């Protein structure tokens, strides 16, 4: 389901954002990687690279900026939107708006805290929460052990800040990653 907020006619469209959200350790990047493979060559579906104030790694598909360069990019209007989480800054490039205006579906991994801002600017937004039980999240985060992840406890506690959040679609990522990727792909291709 894609929610259209009141007054959406003055928001950016006619394409839509599919915002993938969920707790750390839910496997969002793994699921997105599977979906990207299935969508390769489809010009109607776009996956912009997030820009993060953390060095790029094999575990995450992002571009990197220093905090100073990121702040400069904010001032220059380089982002469609941006947010802070886990002591880092994240942004979606402004070029995503060109894709939205060209009727494409733009799929990106974002913080649940930025959903209201995105809904306020864009006509068509669908949120997909990828999640897993707390014990699975803790095991995955402990196994990941990236130095830039910060405190395991802090990442797990951050979920409590979003207990009232309700996504348009929820995918439990507890089985094969391919199952969750198929579920996400179904949302992306629906309209």
What keywords describe this structure?
Rossmann fold, five-stranded parallel sheet, 7 helices, globular
SSE blueprint and pairings:
Layout lengths: L15 E6 L6 H12 L5 E2 L3 E3 L9 E3 L2 H9 L3 E7 L2 E6 L1 H7 L3 E5 L5 H7 L3 E7 L2 H11 L7 H7 L10 E4 L4 H13 L2
Parallel strand pairs: 1-7, 1-8, 2-7, 3-4, 8-9
Antiparallel strand pairs: 3-6, 5-6
Helix pairs in contact: 1-7
Would you give an account of this structure?
- The chain has 191 residues and is an alpha/beta fold.
- The protein has a domain at 8-47 and 97-189: P-loop containing nucleotide triphosphate hydrolases (Rossmann fold), CATH 3.40.50.300.
- The chain has seven helices and nine strands; from the N terminus they run βαβββαββαβαβααβα.
- The chain has helices spanning 28-39, 67-75, 95-101, 115-121, 134-144, 152-158, 177-189, and strands at 16-21, 45-46, 50-52, 62-64, 79-85, 88-93, 105-109, 125-131, 169-172.
- The protein has a five-stranded parallel sheet, sandwiched between helices.
- Helix 1 (28-39) packs across helix 7.
- The protein starts with 15 loop residues before the first strand and ends with a helix.
- The relative contact order is 0.25.
- The mean pLDDT is 85.
